[in-house]
Amino acid sequence: MQPQFTPQQRREMIAKIRQLPAQLEVVVRDLTPVQLTTHYLAGEWTVAQNVHHLADSHINSFVRLKLILTEDKPTLKPYNQDAWATRVDADNPSIETSLQLLRGLHARWSALLESLAESDWLRAG
To answer: CA-to-CA distance for 112 and 72, rounded, in angstroms?
Structure first.
C-alpha cells in the first residue's frame, strides 16, 4: 500500500497546519465581543463558536493521530460538535484561550507530522 500523498504534498499540508493559528489571529484580532457572538446566519455558529470549535476539533484530530501512531487500528471516537459548541466554554466571546491552545497544538502537531517515518503514513484507525 502506497501513501496517498507525496512527501512534497505532505510538507505543504504540514506548513498549512503550522500557519493556521497565525492566520486565524489576523482574521479575528480586531473583532468586538458583539461581532464574535453574533449569529450572522440563522442556525449557524458565531465567529467565537467557530474559533472554539477549531480548538476542540484539532485537539481531537491530534489525539486521533497519536492513537493511530501508538495502537493497532484504534477505534476513533466521534463527538457531537454541535453539542460541544453550546457549552459555556465554547459559546462566549473570550477566544484567547482557544487561540493559545491552537498555537501550542499546531506547533506540536506539525512537529509530530514532520517526524513521521514513511511507514507511519500507512497506519490506519
So the answer is: 18
